[in-house]
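Table S2 (continued). Query chain:
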Amino acid sequence: MGRVSARLDDLPLRDDLRGQTPYGAPQASLPVALNVNENTHPMPEDVADDILDAVAVALQEVNRYPDREFTALREGFADYLGFGLTRDEIWAANGSNEVLQHVLQAFAGPGRTAFGFAPTYSMYPIITRGTGAAWTAGTRSHDFTVDAGSAAAQVAATAPDVVFLCAPNNPTGTPMPLDVIEAVYEATHGVVVVDEAYQEFAPRSEPSALALLPGRERLIVSRTMSKAFAFAGARVGYLAADAAVIDALRLVRLPYHLSTLTQAAATAALRHALTMLRMVDEIVAQRDRISATLPALGYEPHDSSTNFVLFGGVNDPAAIWQQLYDRGVLIRDVGIPHHLRVTAGTDIETTAFLDALASIDSRS
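Corresponding output:
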């Protein structure tokens, strides 16, 4: 008798997870993949060599558990971020998603709520529901901005336990001024998480929320190494917050959650921050090139402070996406009507995308 696989509905799944769909960005082996906001530039050879040397040394002690407090890595992040931060105010985990999961496990959970201004990072509601909390979405203006007054009013009316502020915002690229963050913080008694995954790509005139940390014990600023440091495959995210918040996260983390090899690789990569930030400048140049070219092709790019461009004026996003796919270029349909999003890649990748898009009738 052949084996019959059970259906998901046949399992004793939590009721609040029934009907939900997992996160899933298309993965395809196309020549030009510009859909998940990776840093598509190859790791510089000298940086890769230093990381390999560090991992080789760490392998000699891989039979032992790693440093549970990942002390050297936290010191490296504190030095990189500046603002007088110390290792006691730093946390890290396997990608920024796990960092955010730790925050929700500590400050949300069953009977509590998390809040964000839609459209925003699609993982916020997924991680929220995964921890048993409820997700509430606020609204943005037609240009995807949020002003201080509206933001504070929406948060005050909702009274969430955790607020997510994606700054700059994914998937729109929109910056979030510090006055909005300050207003939201004052409007809630909950934890406010400023997700600065793309902060390194923002203009220097857009200050980091790290400047707001002193005196705000409920404020958290999260970052990732996936973007600016071309470390998406290594899975390293981190945050800065009051030392008491770090103590709270220790209550929910799994033992030895950051491997010895991960700690060694990330610590080595941080030593080359200046080299990696020069790569960021190249990516920003390609982003601006995309934004400058799209209007001539009949599309409407939104201002971006990230490593991607959201553009409107797309009559049929699914059709344009498919025609680009057929031409070997993968970008992202993020579900915003008449919009698509493309990651800024290398010069060659940018040229391939723009040439492919130019070959498609924009009326499709």
